[in-house]
Amino acid sequence: xxxxxxxxxxxxxxxxxxxxxxxxxxxxxxxxxxxxxxxxxxxxxxxxxxxxxxxxxxxxxxxxxxxxxxxxxxxxxxxxxxxxxxxxxxxxxxxxxxxxxxxxxxxxxxxxxxxxxxxxxxxxxxxxxxxxxxxxxxxxxxxxxxxxxxxxxxxxxxxxxxxxxxxxxxxxxxxxxxxxxxxxxxxxxxxxxx
Amino acid sequence: xxxxxxxxxxxxxxxxxxxxxxxxxxxxxxxxxxxxxxxxxxxxxxxxxxxxxxxxxxxxxxxxxxxxxxxxxxxxxxxxxxxxxxxxxxxxxxxxxxxxxxxxxxxxxxxxxxxxxxxxxxxxxxxxxxxxxxxxxxxxxxxxxxxxxxxxxxxxxxxxxxxxxxxxxxxxxxxxxxxxxxxxx
Lengths: 194, 185
Description:
The structure holds two protein chains of two kinds. Chain A is mainly alpha-helical. Chain A has eight helices and no strands. In chain A, α1 packs across α2, α2 packs across α4 and α6 runs antiparallel to α7. The longest helix of chain A is centred in the middle third of the chain and has 35 residues. Chain B starts with a helix and ends with a strand.
């Protein structure tokens, strides 16, 4: 079961949704903020690139906000399911669109990919903490996590690249994620020197 | 294992498609309900982790250690400070606008594998591990690069010793290959 804690905002989703339907823009924004990570998780399971994930999230939230403002959310208590429904419908649309696009890629993909630009993000405290914590993992564990979250490979692809069973790759990744989560949560000695 | 631990594993299974489609459909209902109700710590953690992992893409991933060639390339960039770590090295302050510190640990690890570096104080207190580091195959030395604030914790905070442990490739015998001490000047 997912653990839910809400130290700074204990308002129920249904209450927020009802307020949003009544025109409260703050409640609308809070709902979007809460649901965005779940929408991104939904997208990441299905899409390979970070850009595609961001686009998917934006599209879902645009549809959601439009529905709120047009009063199309009939039951505020079911707001989570409503947004999940938007995700599922959009995913289906995307599958159809992908089929069309893959045909275009076959024809023109080489010309288009030459125009891609990669812009590295600024280094943040969280990144430095992660950089610090990664050194304490074994190479195998780092690779397991990297292949999943850096190269965005699927579970079966990761186990294949590591040359281990899917079960072992899964356990390796879970342990590494737990270790990193615990490590990055604690302040580092170098932070006091900054 | 705690409930929070289970949630993290479950979410990872979901994201990596280790969770079957049938289970994923049911999981999504709970995920969205929990997200709408408030904050889901594991979701927030992995959501941020995805973004952070992409930042490392531009720096070659999550590997630990570098080659002489990679370090030479980095040294050509502005705001990069280089430290040559010998058995007894005193390290002075680097320019305030330094972004990266790159370093070379003077050791020859050719013929060794499974290399770990323990950072300890002169009186034996453990500070940090660098696990499974890679060395330069040409000269056997250890090269690395990190952000300046991180480097400061190793080079400028207190006297420290880098204890390099490895297994001989031929025999598997584990040994301390070198101990290099660093003292802030």
